[in-house]
Amino acid sequence: MTALADASPVSVSNRAAKRIAEILSREPAGAMLRLAVNGGGCSGFQYDFSITTDREEGDLAIEKNGVIVLVDSVSLDFLKGAEIDFADELIGAAFKVNNPNAASSCGCGTSFSV
Fold first, then answer.
1. Fewer CB atoms < 10 Å away: N or C end of the chain?
2. C-alpha distances in Å from residue 56, one per residue of 36, 71, 91
């Protein structure tokens, strides 16, 4: 288990941390958000957000404004330098991953290629 603050290879924006806190406030104590990269989607890989109370060995734990986001070690290879953000726009509200490793992404916003 790795816990890093500002030197984390993945960052969480203030907007995302606020929204994560709102979501986790309705979950059991100790709940955390997990971001994973899975094979699939329109472009080859897709982001998967889930809520968990379990940390796995090798997880990166990112703490921001009292919330914790977990990223597994395999997904971290695809996410180094990325920022997790939250956008509330006319077309809808969603978490966004601003990922410098993504060579392209599709219109759905959850799928990318490297």
1. N
2. 12, 9, 35
| Burial track 62-97 (b if 16+ CB lie within 10 A, e otherwise) | bebeebbbbbbeebbebbeebebbbeeeeeeeebbb
- Taking the chain, what is the end-to-end CA distance rounded to the nearest angstrom? 26
Distant-in-sequence, close-in-space partners of 25: CB < 8 Å, separation ≥ 6: none
Give the predicted TM-score (pTM) of the model.
Answer: 0.82
Q: Hey, which residues does 32 pair with through a beta bridge?
A: 52
Locate all alpha helices (DSSP H) within the chain, ordered by sequence: 14-24, 73-79
Strand partners, 63: 68
- 49-67 per-position pLDDT tens digit: 999 999 999 999 999 999 9
